[in-house]
Design brief:
About 15% of the residues lie in helices and about 45% in strands. The protein is an alpha+beta fold. A 5-stranded antiparallel sheet has the order 1-3-2-4-5.
Length: about 130
Amino acid sequence: MNFFVFVYGTLLKGLQRERALSRSQFIGQAWIQGLLYDLGSYPGLKEGGGKVFGELYSVDQATLNYLNRIEGYDSDAPENSLYIRKKITVSLAATDETLEAESYFYNRPILETKRITHGDYRAYLEEQALQQKY
């Protein structure tokens, strides 16, 4: 059985943890409703009315279990997890088709000042790199 998973941070193509999805099927560029935050070396997703951009994958159970470990998600004790995996509606960028998927939401308090207002982690990293250059 396969699962749709929306990723928005270090699991994106070209970023630090992309290899975790190397055996998974890339479905396409996508977006969801939510708010994205800079947590230092990775981002965090919270529920909210903004748009968060990322990628949709079809993953098998072994990969989903691996993603749970990466994200610090424990289905037996979600309240203690760093991230909580939740069902969401994902819109594919190319077609606006919507699908049900799962994604990982940050499960700790967060500073509103750390919000990535445009919701695109890859663009945010590029902006940060440019600012450090000058």
